[in-house]
Each structure stands twice: as C-alpha cells, then as structure tokens.
C-alpha cells in the first residue's frame, strides 16, 4: 500500500479553511451558509465531483445518481465531497460540433480545480469529448484525479436484431436512402437504438477514449467496460469515491501516473481495439499536457502489426455489453500483455500488470485470441505527401481493400451543404473512381473539425450498388463510421493547406502501403494556385469562436490551444 505523504495540515484546502484570520473566517462562514460546520470538512480531503451532466446530456442521464454513489464513497473514506457541475457536451446535440468545446471544457476543469478549495477530483465523463477534456484539464491542474467512465449503454434492439450506435445508423440510412426501409420501421429503429443510459456501445470515440483512460492508468481497473445501467457501475462509482480520498493522502497526481510508456500502451491498445481515429487527436493533446513527446509517426509505428482482437462494431460484430460479459478491458489487455509495458502505474496504486492480473476471457468470439484475430489488416495509416505535408490519417481496415491503392479524379466541395446537395442529386456526374474532396472542415474551417469525414456516397452510385469510394477531408470521422475516408489532412484548407488548391478533375493518388497521399499536379501549377488563393474572412468577430480561431492548433498536434499546450506551471492562487 502506498504511504501517506500528506497530513491534514498539508491539505491544499486547509489554505482556505485553516488560518485564524479574516479571510478564512469568510470562507468558513460561507461554508456554514451552505450548512456545513468545520467538523464536517476541516482536515479532510475536499473532493470535487466534476459532473458533466445537464438535462440534455443524453449519455450521462445516470450521473445524478452516480454523484450520490461517489459521495457515499468519499464520506466512507473520511473525505468531504462537493459536486462541481461542468459543461456536458452531449455529442449529438451540441452544434456545430463538440470538438469546438473540448478545450473549453478542459479549461473549465482546470480552472475549477485551481480556483476552488479542492484537494482531489473524481472526473465524471464519457460522451466523446468529455473524457479527453476532463483529463487534459486535470493533468494541467496537477491535483490527484480519478476518471469515472460513464459506461456503455445496453445493446440497441430493433426487429429481432442488436443495433449498434452510429455504425448501424449509417448502414441503415444508406438502405433507407436506397428505398429499402420504410417510415414505420425507421421510427421503430429510432426508439430502439439508444434504450438506456450510457455512451455509444460500439467502439466509437466514447468507448475508445474511456478504454484508453483505463489503459493510461486514470481509472480503476475494469471500470471502462461496465454498462451504465449495471449495478456494478454504481459500485464502481462508490469505489472511485473511496479511492480518491486515499489518492489525496498519497498525493498521487496525474504526473505520477502518466509516462511515455502509458501513451505507447494506449496507442497499442487502441489498435487492438480498432479504436476511433479521434483518439489520435486526443492522445496527442493529452501527451502534450503531460509534457510527453508524441507525434503522428509514433501512432503508425506502434500500431503496425497489432492484431485487432476486439470483435466490436464497427470493425467487428458485437457490442460493448457483450465485451463486458466476455471479460471486459482487463481480459482484453491480458491478450496483448506481451505488447504492453505492464510496469506503468495506475490510480489504483498498483501497476497496470497487477491491475489486469488474473482476468479471463469468457467468450473468445467477442475477445479473440491472438491465433484468431478479427483482422490483421492495418487499423491505422499515417499518410503524407503533396496533399498532406503535415499528415493525414486513414483506417485501412475499414476501407474496401481495392481502394488502398487508387488514382482518380477529384470532385471538390467547398462546404458541407453544397456537398450534401450534390450527392443527393441523381444526375451528379460521378463515377466510382472519383475521389470526393471536402474542404473547409478542419479545426478552423469547420470550425472544430466536425465529424463530416465519412462523406456520403452519391445517390447515383449508391443505387448502382457502390458502397465505398475514396473520400478526403480535413474533418474528423465518427469512430463508428467506416469506409476509405482520409481524415485530419494537415494543414487544413482554411489556412491555405494544399487541400485548398485542389480543383475538379485533378488526379489524386492514394497509396496506403507507401503511406502517400499526393495530388498529381505540377509543382509550378500548384504554386501559382497558392499565390492566387485568398484566405477566407474570419468566421467569428468576437466571443469564444474568435478565441478558438486565434489559438487552436492543427490536427497533427492535437488541436489544443497554444496557450494551454505550452509547458510551465500556473501558480496556485493567492488566498487573500
Ligand atoms: Fe454520447 Fe455517442 S453520443 S457517446
């Protein structure tokens, strides 16, 4: 058991509540205003329960009950719990995209922890950007913190089959556009696809990031796989409350947990999970917050040769509920233990190896053995070339194999709406060999890199039976999407990247094996187009959007704000 390195007198919160002076009198009297006498909190770890819930937080509907569970755990361990509500970022409802607000929530997390009398935090998140945002903020705040994952929702249910979030919607939407699914069946699907609390139960961004939070050592072992409605999820929340109190006494901060090897483990685990490409952005941002060097090529190198063992949609057949019953992330990590550095620490106070020791796989169809992987096709390729000098990413395993080496004419769209209108037009002049290009969808152009990267197949091709074609953008793609989609092109078109210079009919060459993405236009012609290019007018004259546009980084560095990603410590606030 790690030793206590803190005493009641050295708690951070004591700076607010301990001194016998006028300012602390004010602090204590206002705590009494809330109904708390010093006997309840003085000398105890004050634990902030950072809750990303509001009335529209569809994936976090169980959080109010879980706050109470965490509270019970904190009290049982001798701490003092306080709930701190934060921005919720419900993925489907926030417009234009939650990615615009990831850094906002990270700032909110950091500044709440810094400015209030808090000794440690339980971070409650799960819906897509909430996980990286809470972790980024907690890393920068530097206080002991434990992540409580929302957990996946139950399997979707429709017409006798299990439905997966996202993936099945895209698939059946194509069928509906092709006229194969009627209005009534579509309405039934709408009511059955998200039938419990919890995050998307495919291996989308939410489940990738909560699983990687566990691999990074920031959750209790096994926490990320527990379905949200399962009573074991409530028990885990209580355990988080108990553990954070111990972590405060141990002064176990994120800096003591996160190591270069933790991030290498996360990249390898993401590859074996066939995780979302969004994880690349978030891991890059998290590593920079932790002061750990990480670049795009490291993702390509570490992912190479890692077999996909999680048979979870969109790459596989099953859903997270099945994954949990099959043994969950602990058992899954056991299957790739030889690829991981098991000596890295976790919030539990044990190594990752100790955290997963003894876990067993109960269903080898869901969590495949190494001898029988879901696929050995590459889960990730980092491409560079004349169209993406700063890099671009692709999931080759999710693409039609014949498209991994492809040359075709570009069909270019300047914005999402014109693209959506064009692909819905049966008269659009397009062939399966065309390469669809969407620009102005990057960090600044989107803004916030919306998940537009899985451009719809034009209706004319869809009716002809085409289900995949090469698509390129500076956008992101939902982790539940699939297809020959090249994403995160950097630098983005909005700031004058080569994507801004492509014209209809230009030949685009993709070669996944060679990791190349090129535009076959003479350099002199491209230079001339670059000279003639006019930067778009700023999208925001004021407000958060203007702050975002002035400070957001490109995809290859994780899209953090420059002033948040830079090294250095922010001083503790003066207590005057
Ligand atoms: Fe919340 Fe997918 S919408 S995790």
**Ligand inventory:** FE2/S2 (inorganic) cluster
Tally the beta strands. Answer: 14
* CATH C-level of the largest domain: Alpha Beta
Low-confidence stretches: none
Largest sheet: 8 strands, mixed
Mean pLDDT: 95
Structural class: alpha/beta
Estimate percent helicity: 25-40%
Please provide a written account of the structure.
Helices cover 36% and strands 12% of the residues. With 576 residues, it is α/β, with parallel strands linked by helices. The chain folds into three domains: 44-154 and 196-356, Response regulator (Rossmann fold); 157-192, no CATH class; 381-532, Glucose Oxidase, domain 1. Strand 3 (120-125), helix 6 and strand 4 (145-149) form a beta-alpha-beta unit. Helix 6 packs parallel to helix 13. The relative contact order is 0.11. The mean pLDDT is 95. FE2/S2 (inorganic) cluster is lined by residues 59, 91-92, 127-128, 165, 199-200, 204, 206.
Q: What secondary-structure arrangement, pairings included, does this model have?
A:
Elements: H1 14-17, H2 22-33, H3 38-41, E1 46-51, H4 63-76, E2 80-85, H5 99-115, E3 120-125, H6 130-141, E4 145-149, E5 156-158, E6 161-163, H7 167-177, H8 183-192, H9 205-215, H10 231-250, H11 254-257, H12 260-273, H13 278-289, H14 296-303, H15 320-325, H16 328-335, H17 352-356, E7 381-385, E8 388-394, E9 405-413, H18 416-423, E10 435-438, H19 459-463, E11 471-473, E12 485-490, E13 507-511, E14 516-519, H20 523-532, H21 543-551, H22 562-565
Helix pairs in contact: 4-10, 5-6, 6-13, 9-12, 12-13, 12-14
């Amino acid at each position: 058991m790690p030793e206590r390195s803190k005493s009641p007198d050295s708690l951070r919160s004591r700076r607010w509540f301990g001194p016998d002076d006028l300012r602390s009198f004010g602090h204590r009297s206002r705590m009494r205003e809330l109904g708390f006498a010093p006997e309840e909190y003085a000398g105890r770890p004050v634990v902030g329960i950072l809750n990303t819930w509001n009335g529209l937080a569809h994936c976090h509907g169980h959080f109010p009950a879980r706050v109470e569970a965490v509270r019970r755990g904190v009290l049982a361990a001798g701490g003092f719990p306080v709930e701190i509500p934060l921005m919720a970022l419900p993925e489907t409802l926030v417009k234009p995209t939650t990615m615009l607000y990831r850094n906002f929530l990270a700032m909110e997390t950091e500044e709440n922890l810094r400015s209030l009398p808090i000794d440690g935090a339980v971070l409650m998140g799960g819906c897509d950007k909430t996980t990286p945002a809470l972790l980024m903020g907690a890393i920068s705040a530097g206080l002991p913190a434990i992540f409580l994952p929302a957990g996946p929702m139950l399997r979707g249910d429709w017409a006798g089959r299990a439905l997966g979030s996202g993936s099945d919607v895209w698939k059946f939407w194509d069928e509906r556009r092709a006229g194969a699914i009627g209005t009534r069946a579509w309405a039934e699907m709408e009511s059955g696809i998200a039938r419990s609390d919890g995050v998307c139960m495919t291996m989308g961004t939410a489940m990738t990031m909560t699983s990687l939070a566990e691999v990074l050592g920031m959750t209790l072992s096994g926490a990320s796989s527990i379905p949200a409605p399962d009573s074991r999820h409530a028990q885990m929340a209580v355990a988080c409350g108990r553990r954070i109190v111990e972590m405060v006494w141990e002064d176990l901060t994120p800096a003591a947990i996160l190591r270069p090897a933790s991030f290498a483990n996360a990249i390898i685990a993401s590859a074996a999970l066939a995780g979302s490409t969004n994880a690349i952005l978030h891991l890059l941002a998290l590593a920079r917050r932790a002061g750990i060097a990480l670049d795009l090529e490291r993702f390509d190198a570490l992912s190479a040769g890692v077999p996909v063992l999680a048979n979870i949609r969109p790459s596989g057949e099953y859903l997270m509920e099945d994954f949990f019953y099959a043994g969950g992330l602990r058992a899954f990590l056991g299957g790739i233990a030889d690829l991981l550095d098991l000596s890295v620490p976790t919030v539990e106070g044990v190594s990752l190896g100790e955290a997963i020791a003894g876990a067993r796989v109960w269903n080898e169809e869901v969590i495949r053995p190494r001898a029988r992987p879901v696929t050995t096709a590459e889960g990730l390729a980092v491409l560079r070339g004349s169209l993406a000098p700063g890099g671009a990413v692709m999931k080759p395993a999710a693409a039609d194999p014949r498209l991994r080496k492809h040359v075709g004419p570009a069909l270019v769209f300047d914005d999402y709406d014109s693209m959506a209108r064009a692909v819905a037009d049966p008269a659009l002049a397009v062939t399966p060999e065309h390469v669809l290009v969407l620009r102005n969808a990057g960090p600044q152009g989107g803004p916030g890199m919306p998940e537009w990267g899985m451009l719809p197949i034009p209706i004319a091709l869809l009716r002809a039976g085409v289900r995949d074609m090469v698509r390129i953008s500076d956008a992101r793609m939902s982790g539940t999407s699939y297809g020959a989609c090249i994403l995160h092109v950097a630098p983005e078109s909005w700031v004058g990247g080569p994507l801004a210079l492509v014209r209809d009919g230009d030949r685009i060459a993709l070669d996944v094996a060679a990791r190349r993405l090129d535009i076959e236009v003479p350099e002199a012609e491209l230079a001339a187009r670059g000279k003639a290019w006019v930067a778009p007018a700023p999208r925001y004259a004021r407000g958060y959007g203007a702050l975002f546009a002035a400070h957001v980084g490109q995809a290859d560095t994780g899209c953090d704000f420059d002033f948040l990603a830079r090294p250095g410590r922010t001083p503790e606030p003066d207590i005057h």
